[in-house]
Amino acid sequence: MKDLISVHGVHFRYDEESDWTLNNVSLSVYPGEWLAIVGHNGSGKSTLAKLLNGLLIPEKGEVVVEGYNSRDENSIWEIRRRVGIVFQNPDNQFVGTSVMDDVAFGLENNGIEREEMIRRIKASIQKVKMENFLDQEPHHLSGGQKQRVAIAGILALKPSIVILDEATSMLDPMGRKEVLETMRELNKQEGITVISITHDLEEAAKADRVLVMKAGKVHAEGTPEDIFKQSGMLLDIGLDLPFAVKLQHQMNKQGLHLSSLHLTQEEMVDDLWTLRSKT
Amino acid sequence: MDITIKNLEHRYQPNTPFERVALDGINLSIRSGSFVSIIGHTGSGKSTLVQHLNGLLKPISGSIQIGEKVIRSSEKAKQLKELRRRVGIVFQYPEHQLFEETIEKDIIFGPMNFGVSEEEAKKKAREVIKLVGLPEDYLNRSPFDLSGGQMRRVAIAGVLAMEPRVIVLDEPTAGLDPRGKVEIMNLFYQLHSAKGLTTILVTHSMEDAALYSDEIIVMDQGKVFHKGTPVEVFKDPVQLRGLGLDVPETVEFVLKLEEKFGKRLPRDVFTVEEAANVAVSLIRKEGEE
Ligand SMILES: Nc1ncnc2c1ncn2[C@@H]1O[C@H](COP(=O)(O)OP(=O)(O)OP(=O)(O)O)[C@@H](O)[C@H]1O
Ligand SMILES: Nc1ncnc2c1ncn2[C@@H]1O[C@H](COP(=O)(O)OP(=O)(O)OP(=O)(O)O)[C@@H](O)[C@H]1O
Ligand SMILES: [Mg+2]
Ligand SMILES: [Mg+2]
């Protein structure tokens, strides 16, 4: 498949005297996929995200988004229009003095005409269920409400690629499910490419592809099945396994073996049911 | 220190068009030395509630008693200094807690403010930075040139350095990597047990709430909806989901088994081992029938 984003041999550091923060990173992002990026604290995930939308420029190597190279100054605008990031700390993202203004701000900057603008503001704020907070100052929201508004701000811009940098870490369990479901719909129905940086391995298990970062390098890459069967490797580098996988390991210890490795509870329960009919 | 909250009410921006009731008629008591979790939907008032525990926010009406100290709406900041030493809060967003130019200065600020010598405070800083899983040479770095999870660790180190008697943790593991989450929760639990700390954990992780708590407080729209042991609180999945919450993944698994096999199974299952036991004995029993 043709790359939507290609990252080639990227080296990056925050200052010239220190070691590489990203050390020879190469990867592809494919159109319409849901790519999860996991890795220990400080492994370079957020730095990579900022390189993908041209907020940071590599010292060596290249980032190319739909044909636009981030080194080329004239391309930066084209890249930013295509790649929207929901940052790890939403406070860094807010510019407006009300929820409404904040979402409007990005649209105004993109020269969206007024009627379309109002339509998009309403739709995106509704998607994240913040219609009752239109006049509230974003900095005066609760932790999870801030994350919802930050997501609305990016959705309104309709980028073709959305990067979620731990964007649902402060949501309550139902809220997280709903927001991820909304993103999944956009991904499936409108073909928006999603790159989700996450410590939530249940979420990563539902991705099309998983990329594992370690100390500034891409350590592994593959389907969730490929990645989560490498339990030793994951534990070694500070990660863990999805609940279903841990549960299966524990059952194995007690002499109960399932037909194959399952990443979800549903698959496991189904498999246990077949096992029962056989015994 | 026992904590007793009576008829607590809090409104943000009172007497303006933006006025918002955040807490309404809260009555709670938290036993000294207990581990209590607070769960509740986004915006239910958890952070507002816990910021009253060291006087960062003042009640509009009602009172909060911590040990001997009673906080009412009239309280002056000066009278709260002793309380701030006793009650340490790890904020929901670590950026709100960090302000010095180096991590070391950030960590020693609290202890020195309360009369610990510089030398002693620096020794403490070296100790706590390791506890939170960061190398000692990070002490000279700026707390702002860090990754999200590293900032979280520094914010936690700063609170640990104060050696509070009551520790309030507002989503302390958000942003930590999976190993970090487990290590830091174990660290809190170990300090809690070893030093008899009163620990108050605000969390969206139903698993952590189930695993560590003596009691869980369920908040809904600025009110206390329910308070009980983990077994009591996680009994009713439908109700919890209606409140924006859920059961821990272990219980969810048992519920799925119950549905598939049409049997009632033990639901007070909060560890992976316990969940595996339920499945294994279910299959063995079915085999015998
Ligand atoms: N502004 C900065 N200046 C200097 N160093 C930085 C800066 N931001 C991050 N770093 C360092 O770069 C490395 C990578 O940080 P990055 O934020 O990309 O990690 P991450 O994988 O997103 O981690 P986390 O899971 O904690 O969010 C870390 O060691 C961090 O200390
Ligand atoms: N500084 C503020 N000014 C005005 N309203 C506020 C302020 N802080 C919080 N609120 C409002 O008070 C209510 C309770 O907020 P609080 O931060 O206590 O919720 P929370 O339970 O901690 O939520 P979360 O799980 O999202 O962190 C919310 O509706 C929020 O919008
Ligand atoms: Mg990050
Ligand atoms: Mg909060």
- Put simply, the count of helices of chain B is 11
Oligomer: heterodimer
CATH class of the largest domain in chain A: Alpha Beta
Report the count of strand segments of chain A: 10
User: What is the gyration radius of chain A calculated from CA atoms?
Assistant: 20 Å
Which parts of chain B are unreliable, with pLDDT below 50 for 5 consecutive residues or more?
Answer: none
- Tell me about the biggest sheet of chain A? 6 strands, mixed
β-sheet strand percentage of chain A: 15-25%
Helix content of chain A: 40-55%
| SS element count, helices of chain A | 11
Query: Class of the largest domain in chain B in CATH?
Result: Alpha Beta
| CATH architecture classification of the largest domain in chain B | 3-Layer(aba) Sandwich
In spatial order, strands of the major sheet of chain B run 6-7-8-3-9-10
When the domains of chain B are counted, the total is 2
Low-confidence stretches of chain A: none
CATH topology of the largest domain in chain B: Rossmann fold
Tell me the β content of chain B: 15-25%
Question: Averaging pLDDT over every residue of chain B, what do you get?
Answer: 95
InterPro entries (chain A): AAA+_ATPase (IPR003593), ABC_transporter-like_ATP-bd (IPR003439), ABC_transporter-like_CS (IPR017871), ABC_transpr_CbiO/EcfA_su (IPR015856), ECF_ABC_transporter_ATP-bd (IPR050095), EcfA_1 (IPR030947), P-loop_NTPase (IPR027417)
Domain ABC transporter (chain A): 5-240
Main location (chain A): membrane
Organism (chain A): Exobacillus caeni
